[in-house]
Amino acid sequence: MSHKSIQDLLPLVEQPSRYLGSEVNHVKKDHHTVKLTIALAFPELYEIGTSHFGVQILYHILNQHPDIAAERVYCPAMDMNAQLKATQTPLMSLETQTPIQQFDILGFSLLYEMNYTNVLSMLDRGNIPFLSSQRNDSHPIVIAGGPCTCNPEPVADIFDAMVIGDGEAVILEMAEAWMEWNDSHCRERQSLLEKWSRIEGVYIPSFYTPVIDEAGFASVIPIASEKNTIKRAIVSDLDEAPFPDRPIVPYGKPVHDRLRLEISRGCTRGCRFCQAGMLYRPVRERSPKTLLELSEAALSATGYEDLSLLSLSTGDYRCITPLLTQLMARKGAEHTAISLPSLRAGTLTPELMKLIQTVRKTGFTIAPEAGSQRLRDLINKDISEKEIVETVNNAFLLGWKVIKLYFMVGLPTERDEDLQAIVALINTLKRIKGPGGRRGKINVSVATFIPKPHTPFQWVSQIPLQESRNKIRWLQQHLRGPGIQFKWQDPEISRIEGLWARGDRRLNRLLVAAYRKGAVFDGWSDTFDIGTWEAALSESGVDADDYTCRERKTAEPLPWDHIDLGVSKDFLEKEWEKALSGERTPDCRDGHCQDCGVCDFQDIEPKVYPSFQGDVATTQETVSVALPGYRKVRALYSKRDQARYFGHLEMVNIFIRAIRRAGIPVRFSEGFHPKPKISFDDPLPLGMESLKEAFYIQVSDEIEPQDIANRLNAQLPEGLVVHDCQLYSAGKGQKPTGPLAAEYLISLREGAFEASKYKAFAESRSVPVTRRNRKGKEISLDLKDIVLEMTVVSADQLHLSLKSVPGKNLRPLAVIGPVFDLDEECLKLAKVVKTGITALSEAP
After folding, report:
1. Angle, nearest 10°, between helix axes 508-516 and 116-125?
2. Is 724 helix (H, G, I), strand (E, B) or coil?
3. Mean pLDDT, consecutive 10-residue segments, the chain of 844 residues?
4. For residue 562, what pLDDT is reported?
C-alpha cells in the first residue's frame, strides 16, 4: 500500500493539524518559479518546533527573496512515523507537500543534543542516506545550524555544511552562492562546498579530519581548507537584522502559544556553567522604538493575546521598565498580556512586577542554580539569598500563587552542605505568605550539571550516574510536604546528553547504531530508553564514562578547539581558576571589559539602550473614553475539507485570533483574566465536517453583522467560512431544545455499505450496542431507537439521520461500525459531513 500524500494519512493519526501547513502567515511558492528550494527542518514535534523563533526568522529572510522558496518540516510524531513507514510515504514539507528529498537544500536546526536521533528519523523517512559521504546529486545538500554546532564533531559525518553562530548573518550568502553555483557549468558538490567554506561561520566537515592518538582524541585538522579554525558568524546590530513582523501562527497548542519578541541577544553575566552566555556574546539589544514597531505589526498580523519578551535575561534589558510601560499603554486596552520568561531575582523589582500584573499575571521563574552562596559565587551566579527571598516575597504579596525554581546537582566542588542549603532555602520560601495569610506554591526543578564546550567548566567531570541518582533522591526525600512540587530530569538522559555535548567524531557510528535499535525522541522521558542506548554503546565500542566522567587537563586538545566562538580559551581557563578561588567576575555592561575576546570594538561590541522616552500616555494617566454599546450576533459557518482536522478548542482559538486580526471590537468578560464574549454550539468531533454550525459573539453596536462575516472570511484558514451573521435575541433563531434529528452524509471506500448488511439491520427488531458516557460508565443503547433513517446512496455513500437526546446519542461512526461490520481503521478513513439538525418534530 502506498499513499501519494501525508494528507491521506491524516485521519489515522492524532493531532492531524500538525501536518496541514496552511497556518496564518505561511508562505507558499510555486517551485517552478524560483531558483532555490530550501526545507527548514526542526527535529522535534510540531508543537516544539513552532515555538522556536529561529526557524521563523530564517523562514522570513529566505521567503523575502523572490528566487527562494523556504518551507518547513518537523519530526513526525510516533503514530505518523509508523504510518509513513508502513505505507512507504516519504516525509514531506508542510507548505506544498513536497518530499524533502526533492528540495535543493535541507537545513536542520540543532538546539538540543537529545534530538540527534530525530535527525536520522527525518532523513530515514525522507529516503535520504544518513552520511554525507553516501549521498549523491539526486539528494539535497544537508546543512545544520543552531547552538549544538559549537561542537559539531559528534554529528559531523551527517552534514555537508554546518553554520556556526548567527544564522541570519550567513543563510542568504550561502543561498546566493548556491544559485551562482547552480547557474555555472561546474555543478560538482565539491565546488559548492569550496564556495561555502570561504563564508565566515560556515564549517565543511569533510574538509577536516580528526586525529586519534593512542591516548584517545588528539585534534581536528584541515585536509582541504586553508582555515585552521572556523570563526563564528555574528550579527552586530539587531536593529539592522531582519525579523518577522508576520510570524506563522501555529495550529494546536504549541509549547509557547504567544507572540515572541527577541528584545536582546547575548548575556555577559558570566555564569560559568552557561554555554549560551558564552555562545551569544556580546550583548546586543534591539532599540525600544524598533520593538514597539515590531510588536504593533506582529500583534496585528497574528491576533495573539500574549506577548513574550525574549532574552537570556530579560530583566537586564536597560529600558525594560519604560518599554513595558509603553507596551501596556498601547496594548492594555486590547487585553494583551506581557510575559518576561527569563528574569533574575535581582532584576525583578516591585515596580516591574506591578506593571506585569496590570494586565495578567504570567509565569514567574527564578534560577538560583545552587543553594549555597559559596557555590553560587563559584559559578558566578550574581544573586544572593536575600534577593531571592525578597523577590519571592514581593511576588506572593502582589498575588502570584506559583513560583518555579531551578537548581543543579553535581556542580564543581559541590558538597553535602550545598544540597542541604537547597532544602533550607526552599523551607524559607515556603514560609512566605501572600495576601490573607495564604501561602503560595513552590515548584522545584532539578537537573544534573553537564559540562558544556566553550565554558569555563568544559574541563571538569560530570558526576557518575549513581551519584546523580543519589543526590536527586536525597532532595526528593527532603523536599516533600504541602506547597512543594519536586521535578527532576532523568539522570540517565543527562548522562547521554553529556556524552553528546563533549563527544567527537567517533560518536557518529553510535548515533546510527542507537537509531537502528529504536532510539527516537530521546529528550522525552516517556520515549527515552536507556536499554537501547546501552546496547548501542556496547555495539559501537563507546565508553560513555570516558567522555562524561573523565576530568580533562586544560592543556589537553578538545574536539571543538577548531571552532572559534570569539571567547578565548585563555579567558575560559582564567575563569576556571577564579571559580576555584571563589572570585567573581562582574558583568562588563556595568564596568570594564573583561577581555573575553569577542569584541573588536569596531564592528562587534556591546549595544545597549540606557534610556527611552515614549510618546504615548502611560498606564497611570486617565483618558476619558465613551464606553461602546454591545449587541449579540449569531454567526453561521461551515467547517469543510482540511478544517475537519481542527479540534474544537483549536477551532475556537482560530476564530478568536481571526477576530483580533480583523479588528472586530468585541466585549470582554470581567475579572483579572478577561476573555472575549464568544460561545459555540455543541462541538463537532475531530474529523467531522459540517455545512452549518453556529457561534455567538457580543460586538460593538458600531459594526454591522454582515461586515463581521466579510472581515472574518479574510482572516480564516482554508475550510472555515462564515456564511451569515445576524442580530440575535433570545427565542429567535436559537437552537431547538429537546430531541433532535441530526443528518449526516457518510462517504467511505467502495463496497463498504453492503446491501445485505443494511437489509439485516433494517429487518432486525433490536440492535443493542454499549458505549461509555462522559463519566466512564458503560450504558446500553438500541440502534433501532437511535437511527431515524438510513439510506444507502451507493456502495460507498450513506445518508444517516440520528435521534439526538442528551445522554443517549451516538456518533455516526459508532452506528455504521456495528451495522456494516467495519473495523476501527476503516472507520477513521470515513468522510462524515453533518448536513443539518432540526427539532425531531420537524424532521422529515
Report:
1. 60
2. strand
3. 71 95 96 98 97 94 98 97 95 97 98 97 98 95 97 98 95 97 88 96 97 85 91 95 95 92 94 96 95 95 93 88 88 80 70 67 79 96 92 83 93 97 96 85 96 98 97 96 94 97 96 97 94 97 95 94 96 97 90 91 91 57 58 96 95 96 91 84 92 95 92 96 90 64 92 91 91 77 92 93 82 93 92 90 51
4. 97
Confidence at residue 596, expressed as pLDDT on a 0 to 100 scale: 96
* Bond before 282 cis per omega within 30 degrees: yes
Q: How far apart are CA 408 and CA 498, in angstroms?
A: 14
CA 313 to CA 277: how far, in whole Å? 10
DSSP character string of 371-403: SSHHHHHHTT----HHHHHHHHHHHHHTT--EE
Q: What is the pLDDT of residue 623?
A: 41
- Whether residue 83 contacts residue 16, with contact meaning beta carbons closer than 8 Å, is answered with no
* Alpha helices (H) in 243-342, listed in sequence order: 275-279, 288-302, 320-331
| Strand spans (E) along 182-240 | 202-203, 208-213, 216-222, 230-231
Position 735 scores a pLDDT of: 59
State the pLDDT at residue 4: 61
Cα distance between residue 442 and residue 4, in whole Å: 51
* 57's grid cell: 526568522
Q: How far apart are the first and last CA of the chain?
A: 42
Handedness of CA 242, 246, 251, 257 (dihedral sign): positive
What pTM was estimated for this model as a whole? 0.94
Sign of CA dihedral 578, 583, 585, 591: negative
At a CB cut-off of 8 Å and minimum separation 6, what does 610 contact?
318, 319
pLDDT at position 736 is 60
Cβ–Cβ under 8 Å, residues 794 and 750: no
Strands 36-42 and 105-109: parallel
User: Of the candidates 556, 390, 380, 534, which has an alpha carbon nearest to the alpha carbon of residue 461?
Assistant: 556
CB neighbourhood size of 584 (10 A)? 14
Beta-carbon contacts of residue 642 (< 8 Å; ≥ 6 apart): 7, 20, 22, 717, 718, 719
Query: What's the grid cell of residue 486?
Result: 519536586
- Rounded Cα distance, 123 and 132, in Å: 11
C-alpha cell at 718: 482554508
- Residue 437's pLDDT is 83
Q: CA of 510: how far to CAs of 128, 260, 496, 507, 517, in Å?
A: 19, 36, 11, 5, 11
Distance, in Å, from the CA atom of 224 to the CA atom of 397, rounded to the nearest integer, reads: 63
b/e per residue 281-320 (b: at least 16 CB within 10 A) = bbbbbbbbebbbebbeebbebbbbbbbbbbbbbbbbbbbb
Q: What grid cell was written down for 655?
A: 476564530
**Residue 145 is inside which H or E element, if any?**
strand 141-145
The rounded distance, in Å, linking the Cα atoms of 15 and 391 is 40
Q: What's residue 3's pLDDT?
A: 46
Report the C-alpha dihedral over residues 50, 53, 59, 64, rounded to 10 degrees. Answer: 140
pLDDT of residue 342: 66
Partners of 742 in beta bridges: 802, 837
| CA 239 to mean position of chain CA atoms | 25
Q: Do the beta carbons of residue 835 and residue 684 sit within 8 Å?
A: no
Residue 56 burial (10 A CB sphere; 0-12, 13-18, 19+)? buried
* Residue 444 near residue 405 (C-beta atoms within 8 A): yes
Residue 329: the pLDDT is: 84
